[in-house]
Amino acid sequence: MKKKVKNGLLVFVFAVLLLPLLQQNLQVIDSGRLFGYYTNTADTSFSLVGWFGGTYQAREAIFLNDHMGFRPDLLRLNGQIDYSVFQKMDYGGVIGSDNYLYYTDYINAYYGKDFQGYEKLHKKMKMLKDIQDTLACLGKSLIMVYAPDKAWYYSEHIPQNLIVLNRKPNNYKTSACMGDSLGINQIDLNKWFLTLKDTTKELLYSKQGIHWTNYGSILGGDSIIKYIEALQHIHMPHPEWLRVLHTTQARVPDRDIGNLLNLIFPIANETYCYPELFYTTDSTTTKPNFIFVGDSYCVNLILTGVMQHMSREWQFWFGFQSVFNKDNYKTGVYLHIDTYDWKSELNKADCIVVLNTPMNAFNLGGGFIDSAYNYYYPKK
Hints:
The chain is an alpha/beta fold. 43% of the residues lie in helices and 14% in strands. The longest helix has 25 residues, at 2-26. It is globular, with a radius of gyration of 25 Å. The N and C termini lie far apart (94 Å).
């Protein structure tokens, strides 16, 4: 009996050791892809120089690790154990009550831990007002948009260990107040979303996402259009509902944090709303030339088609570093602002929208405000 047990255990051990090798070479099952950043190193060529220098062995070890059989499945198992047993997340994420997921940067900004100070913020907003006035003289509009923020929208689910009882001033509220006083054209979508929270039937934020949902971004985009219409006294195309799809299958990026965890079991089963849109245009419709400058919250406006349909020509200057437009946004091959004639493009635009979520209010426009100010008001 003992011999049979030993033999059985020996067979089991060999099977465990051989199965990954079989999977690596034969692909017995489809393990599925992983989300987020994971290396997939190409194999290296053997050479005597590499062998005796040790570089071949090091590179081959990385290749074998990246292509080990069942690697995606094992990583998902590890992620599930971390999440379910230890309440642990990677990528700077934290788990709030009722499985609401956050990034700590958003929570820190909500509590004012990154507050830049009144003097610094006032200087930045005064520069923005000067740029707005200059663009107005050139027949152009500049608008500051505060996108929604999950830490504000679901503040009641922030993890207990991150709650700050004595909140400090924060960059977003301070900047918005200064903007009102200075007469800056601005839209506070974060404040508006909070008023919708108790009445909306659709998800404006999901448990598993850090950005506004696609549905929420459509509402926000329509509000931006209405503001520009009133500011420029024009009539623009509006997104109108043709039909609405309700589904538990999330589209990008409505479950972006949840996907990065690569779990076996979903955190939550949520119902998402995806309107099928159409835009009516006629002889009275105007489509200005737009430049959006800001953070990743602008991406939803592209994914839902709002940015493309509201404008004749559009650009998205991501963090004032990467340049996306109608020609390259699908390819992922973007231009860099340092090698881009952004000044010329700025002069061609009809409307410039600076859009940031409150988390990024510590650096509105990501360097655009300082650069544009120095362009229009060069130092003597």
